[in-house]
Amino acid sequence: MTQKTLYLIHHSHTDIGYTDRQEKISRHHVNYIRQVIHFLNDLEAGKTPQWEGYKYVCENYWQVEQFLAQATDEEKTAFEKYVEKGFIDISLTYLNFTELVDPVMLDKKFATAKDYVNQFNRKFDSAMTADINGFSWGYVDIMYKNGVRNFFSCLHTHHGMFPLFKKQLPFYWEGQSGEKVLVWNGDHYQIGNDFLFAPNTDQSKQYDINGFTEKDWEDQFEVTKQRIFGYFDLLEEENYPFDFCPVMMSGIVTDNSPPSPRMMEGIHRWNKVYGDDIKVELVTLNHFFEILRSKELDIPTYYGDWPDWWADGVSSTPAGVKLYRDAQRKYRLVNKLDPKGLKANPTQLKEAEDHLLMYAEHTWGFHSSVSEPWDAFVNLLDTRKLSYAINGNRIISNHLDDILETYGEEANQLDRENFYKVINPHDEQVTTLATIYVQHWQTVDDSYFYTSLDNFVEVVDCQTGDVLTSQVSDSSRGKKVSFNINLAANEERIVHLRRRENKNNMNAKYYNHAHIGAEQVKDIAPYEGYNHPVSIYGVKTDHLDITLDQHKGISSIIDLKTGAQLIHPDALHAPFMGVYEVTSFKDSNPYSIRSIMGRNRKAPSTKRYTSKLVNIKQLADGPLFAVLLLKYELEGTGIYDVILTVHKHAPQIDITIRLQKTCSWAPENLYVALPFTYGQPEKTDSFFEKSGTIFRPGIDQLPGSNTSFYSLDNGAIFKNQDKHLFVSMKDTPLVTLGSLDSQLVELSCENSHEKNKEILYSWAMNNFWETNFKVDLSGFYELDYALYLIRDKEKDIKHPIQSARHLIEGVITIPYNPNDNEKMLF
């Protein structure tokens, strides 16, 4: 028998909020590093020879960062000494993230970790992650940029699965740049604990009134023998090609486990008895990859996205995710308005980043959140998790305000002249609607807004003197004045809000037209000399022809420039209709019904309900846009309203879904139908934008990866030659493709390209996990979507997606008092 080697890698898995309060977890990990230093000090002093060979890996740089912030100078010196010697290793990942994480922030944290380890005379080029079940394709290039050449994934197949249809194998993961990172596609992050190397482990279950005896140790060692030889026998049966295998382990089987050197006692005992057959060696992360790269192995290369099976957690906390996404958009505006970080306090920016990164960390709540939703600790940790989104949003909003102040933003003032500055923060020309909010106490040329919305104010471009097309509507702040503006890249323009000249139009009751009755209802069909482009039956603009069916809602959207239909011909649900699912647990309990769902987020017994249209109202019809309200009834909700704002001079529709979700302890899903395409589906490709990368679902993916759902950034785009339909999902990043029925789960393979043509749904809410998801989805929500038609002859899909990003982030309008020199210009 050829000698084989089992490599053990010892770490403590960071799961921030799953086992204790978030700040307590930080305190634990600081002390875990202190414990490791103590173990190594004793070993170096010759006090514990039985622990010879002990090593520890900091699973991520966050642990190190927490330690350095609390450690004494003496502790820092000891830590750095053992890092230099290779007894303490550092993974260059910052935390185990969901795909909410912003790529710019992620890049910064990889860079921070790399900057720290550069002081040592050792090579640090490896990163690991534990528990989570996938990573955006963008990880590859961000890691490579920051010196990471090796990546160890030890995921958890609970409601998830590893890629490539097999684990415990290496592959090169190629990024969109063409650079590659060597990945070890590993097993569970505590699989090494199954081998019972540490004496008196809780897994051995050998409890006795006399404690752990030598006889118990011998019995446990016999189990170790059976499991290790059995493990390698299984590998051989599965045609495993290597004579070595790495596994991760912790001090004990729990998340946020304290470290332990006692595993060395079992390792030494094993090697003395069975080491000629299977040698066991404790190694660090970086050392393992040095060993792996020294071997002449035939390692395949794969490219594409690695969708996270645990991405669905974002839909269990829709209110917090909405705050996070708003903060993320503000963060991107901050980086555009102040790219060098000179206009505001960089410490404040870092504080906002830290809060947002903690919200994007993969732990969604306490482990008993479903079985004990009333528990004080469950609700405490849920509130603390939400606080990261709240504080991140608060701080980045304040940081943006600091920057806008340098652009001349004025505070509220009585009797201020109504000048405003409009800023295009983007690096390309933008034509869009800008917005001025006028509060109830503010005046325009000494007049209040109470008398009329129409024909009261106008917006003047101070540079040209042109009156810009505008429209006034109600808002929670008072009145909203929207106006169309065209701005060059990074251009700033001053506008003036003034009272419009009163033309004393005759009262509408005297109009001599057949289409206006005494009750002011316009319900006459178009006839020669009269056009009726806006009604509860449809809207026709310069770009779009939208038809409304009185039973289901939007039945057709035509691009008037090409005649193309934008709704998929196989759509089962009209755009933005709600679909609600609930699974009864009358024969079980809220925990167990969820635990058996596996990778399918529903059961054959799941009941599905589709929203029913009960009314359509026309809310506004102005020079810039028309607004329609579609009222639906939907099981699981008290309100499900769809508000359509159809732009008249741009190929754009803004959609707001207002809903009141009722409470249920049962597993639930709420979807929003997005059945879009561009013309013929067979000629249209869908692309997803996600964490800094763009890929085609079902095509640009690792083999064996998740095709059931995806977490996106700004949204999805449907491309048919040089025509593009971008579907923006501002608040709800999770989407699913295809049938909503319970079915066998399809993994990415040669045939999964068909997935690319399937119907898209926004997965707005769910609470299906049996652990650490927030079970109560109830409350009032406002979820924003948008459709943008983008005609772009560029072959690179990046350009139309960039244009859509700019529309999503918008332009900025601030109250502004021009100086005398500026006034002279207009």
UniProtKB/TrEMBL annotation:
Kindly list the GO molecular function terms attached to this UniProt entry: alpha-mannosidase activity
Q: Name one Pfam family in it.
A: Glyco_hydro_38N
What protein name applies here? Glycosyl hydrolases family 38 N-terminal domain-containing protein
Its GO biological process terms?
mannose metabolic process
Domain Glycoside hydrolase family 38 N-terminal, first and last residues per copy: 6-302
Keyword check for S-adenosyl-L-methionine: no
Task: Report keywords, A-Z.
Answer: Hydrolase
